[in-house]
Amino acid sequence: MIVTCVHVDVKPEYVEDFIRATRINHQNSVAEPTNLRFDVLQSTDEPTKFLLYEAYASEEGAAAHKQTEHYLTWRKAVEPWMAKPRQGVPYTGIAP
């Protein structure tokens, strides 16, 4: 299992736009054949901070996600809404 935790800081005036765009990306991502999880989390203390938890069955599946139309559309849309560049941190799944 290949996991990436993506940390995103959004400009306050774009939080709702970011949520809408990310929900669409989420809906399409969970339909990908190798996707195991695609969770979108918003900080309760700082509502401009988000965590995307992405889990794929293989490196190939994770790489294929970055070539999908929905991901590329999401990336282009949300980039100007970010307070700073997003940070993806890769993990190797241990359990389950």
Can you tell me the overall shape?
Answer: globular
> Structural class of the secondary elements?
alpha+beta
The share of residues in extended strands comes to 25-35%
Q: What is Rg?
A: 13 Å
DSSP helical segment count:
3
Helix content: 25-40%
Question: What is this structure's SSE topology?
Answer:
Elements: E1 2-9, H1 15-29, E2 35-42, E3 49-56, H2 59-65, H3 69-78, E4 87-92
Antiparallel strand pairs: 1-3, 1-4, 2-3
Helix pairs in contact: 1-3
Quick structural gist:
The chain has 96 residues and is an alpha+beta fold.
What would you note in describing this structure?
With 96 residues, the protein is of the alpha+beta class. The chain contains 3 helices and 4 strands. It has helices at 15-29, 59-65, 69-78, and strands spanning 2-9, 35-42, 49-56, 87-92. The chain has a 4-stranded antiparallel sheet with strand order 2-3-1-4. Helix 1 packs antiparallel against helix 3. The model has no long low-confidence stretch (mean pLDDT 96).
Keywords:
4-stranded antiparallel beta sheet; 3 helices; alpha+beta
